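QUALITY CONTROL LOG
STEP: pairwise intake check
CHECKER ROLE: data steward
CRITERIA: each record must contain a sequence immediately followed by its structure tokens, with no blank fields

ENTRY 1 OF 2
RESULT FIELD BELOW
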Amino acid sequence: MTGYEAKGKGILYYKCNKVGCKVNKNAEQLRKAYNSLLNDFAIDERLIAPLKQKLVATIESLNEQKAEDAKRLKVTLKVVHNKLAPKKPWFWIRSWHLICESWKRSCAASSHLVNLLA
């Protein structure tokens, strides 16, 4: 919908933009209809305080669950870390051994190539 002001009258209207639609509506009528629709969603004043209490209780409960989840995850992380910690030296020794072996082969290949070219 597109809003526009009627020439000379100063009245606001909304016009439908779809092809074949020739509906024009007074903006004041649409505003009243929209306010009426919003009033259907209004909360009774007597229910606001109990609703607030329920929302606060729900949020606190969710926060407690998140705190428990965080504690559980920290314990799990410690367990996994402790399981992996003893493996670290072996991993580094094995990796270093593989690097050295690769370097030795590379050096041996280079020496062999130098000997062939000499």
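ENTRY 2 OF 2
RESULT FIELD BELOW
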Amino acid sequence: MATNSWRISTINGALLALYFIPAWTIVAFKIVVSPVHGLYDLPNVSVALFLGDHLHFASMNLVRFAWLLALAKMTVVVFFAVFLLMTTRASVRKTGGCDEALAMALGIGSLITFGSMVMASRVGEMAALRLHATELLLLLGGAILMAVEPPFQRKTEPVRQWPPEPEIYPFSNPSS
């Protein structure tokens, strides 16, 4: 395995995926199994408190929103999983074909964590605020790294120069 085909954003994205896939899958499955209990766990408690206290959502609407939150988190997990699968092929990794899946995961994940962070700050849930701020910094750091990293440069072999074409002038006198 040639290490020169790995970009720093690909390694960073793989490390982010190794954190977010299990963490958000567990959170999403807790919501699927029991929407109310899953929504009041630490990663989602700020969202539940904000929706219940500030927006006055009814309990059935909280359950619907919990399922929507679980679906959004599973979408991010799927994009990270697709990114990891695409990085296993060197031809896709070298051409940057896996960057779209990583960009979608980073974008949707950043929106979810930013919204959760704002809601945590509004309800005063400090533990959830720290968690969401940390996750947001991880995702934004990955996005910035993708944006500033130059494209992958391949080593090109020098092209052999062909001899110049002979000067042939039809209908002309070569002695003149």
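INTAKE CHECK: passed for both entries
DESCRIPTIVE NOTE, ENTRY 2: The chain has a mean pLDDT of 88.
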